[in-house]
Task: structure prediction
Amino acid sequence: MSLQIPITKTAASKISSIDFDNLHFGDVFADHMLVSDYKDGRWSLPQIVPYGNLTFAPSMRSLHYGQEIFEGMKAYKDAQGKAWLFRPEENARRLNVSAKRLAMPELPEEYFLEGLKALVRLDIGWIPSKENTSLYIRPFMFASEESIRASEAKEYKFIIFCCPVGAYYSNPVSVKIADYYSRASDGGIGFTKAAGNYAGQFYPTKLAEEEGFQQIIWTDSGKHEYLEEAGTMNLFFRINDTLITAPTGTRILDGVTRKSLIALAKDQGISVEERFLTVQELIAAHENQTLKEIFGSGTAAVVSFVKEFGYKGRRFPLADMGHGGYAALLKKQLTDIQYNRAEDKFGWRCAI
Ligand SMILES: *Cc1c(COP(=O)(O)O)cnc(C)c1O
Result:
């Protein structure tokens, strides 16, 4: 059943010039990339070629109307040097959820999955091996047609490239609860990984940074009453011993980390509620000291601890739960599965 993916290898590997002990996020790229083109109503068999620049027309449609979607995932090396993916079928499926909403053609899932495995197998030497490092994988799709007609394109490109990344530890963050700007609205594209969702956040995030915050907690665009998610992460609030996270729908992204943490929490008897928490409930829980933890979840950092939130000029600090919190516990359990340090009873790991 497996696809025969044509490979053109690079004549000049960059791997020996990379300092694998000092990797930052997202500015070093592995030797190869996977490419497939959509034309005349079908996707071409993906091919692997050297990572390199593309040429395109200035009138390429994605540059004008923003038809661009992406995914984010990782490959991990275990202590024996064996490589693993984590729930890659979820990313293949979600890419097509985004594609459908942006009027883009769905990519056959085996092109995504088989192409990805062939690419990572070829560039396996690019997966760093130090503890908690990984190979970040960026699949994306964009309208490549030469035309500025304001409607969906007829030609697209799908590409996957990879970046080795260091152990991503994010320091506990201060977050600002949005009371004016918004990220997503009902019936909109908030649930997709569309490039434009990110572009719209940079300006309000820059303003929040000027006030000393690192991220924004988005609220509903109507009344700014309900807590939604951070820009690149889903959010969990622990009140007493219950974890609360916003339900997915048209505003919230269906994060793979989010759903994995929910499954892990439920599996050990932690109560999880998928419902909207209001800003007023959050502040009340902070005042009566039942608010124990807030954390974000996403592929890049797995879990980001929140040390403080701000709302309309007031600041609300949170006590550091250290290793005793749910965030630390769930983070350890999830990364132990990803790095093949623990049993994988859910069947999430995928050998490459
Ligand atoms: C990608 C993303 C997340 C996290 O999703 P994961 O699948 O867990 O990486 C959360 N929110 C938004 C808006 C995102 O784009």
